[in-house]
Amino acid sequence: MNIAGNTILITGGGSGIGAALAHEFHVAGHQVIIAGRRQAALDAIVADHPGMAAMTIDMEDPAAMAAFAARLVADFPALDTVLLNAGIMVAEDRIDLAIAEATVATNLLGPIRLTHALLPHLLTRPAATLLTVSSGLAFVPLVATPTYSATKAAIHGWSMAMREQLRDTPVDLVEIVPPGVQTDLMPGHADNDQMMPLADFIAETMALLRQQPTPAEICVERVKFLREADRRGEFDAVFAMLNGQH
To answer: What do you get for the CA distance between the two ends of the chain, in Å?
Structure first.
């Protein structure tokens, strides 16, 4: 991806990884637009970053996507980078249909719908980047969060296929693959010393994004335990370890 002068939309930019990446891109001189459901959270971040912009979006609402995209492109015609970061992670006791449907709508259908709405514009830019966010759990699922793990596996497969479809266009596709990170994605994560500190994850991720050419997958060292488990022939052992099986 280009590393200077981009106009970047970050969904899920009101907290966690999205907010931290928004800060880094803003400090680096990019025009950053953060999007999320909670106006107050977005406003607080913008207040600390003069020149940053914010727009509300509900990634579960398919009817809102086209209008959001039209308003975004009208207000920011130089838009050339979209970071599809918004996501939810909720524990499920067997099948909780409400949780499952909300997770699929936010984590999978939301990025697909928003890409559909914005891709015609991105294809007009001299160079553009779509950044998806999957998870180490795309490669070794967590039993407590089956639908979250499934949506992230789907995002990984979708990213691979879309990257190939876009190969001869100005649009690159880069997949960010986080490990567990100390954020508020799930209760207790922010204070869990088994999770990667957010500042460390952001520093390593930004360094990888600055590489030329940018790797197709942004994998910090810590996530490779999960990402590469199958190719190491250790999937069963890693699955058991991750899920507390002995």
So the answer is: 43
* Fold exhibited by the domain 7-242: Rossmann fold (3.40.50)
d(CA 119, CA 114): 8
Q: Is the peptide bond before 111 cis (omega within 30 degrees of 0)?
A: no
Check pLDDT > 80 for residue 1.
no
Vertex 58, ends 54 and 61: CA angle to 5°? Answer: 145
pLDDT band per the 50, 70, 90 thresholds, residue 4: confident
**Which tokens in the block code for residue 44?**
């607080």
User: How many whole angstroms separate alpha carbon 227 and alpha carbon 236?
Assistant: 13
In the chain, domain spans: 7-242
Q: CA 216, CA 211: separation in Å to the nearest integer?
A: 11
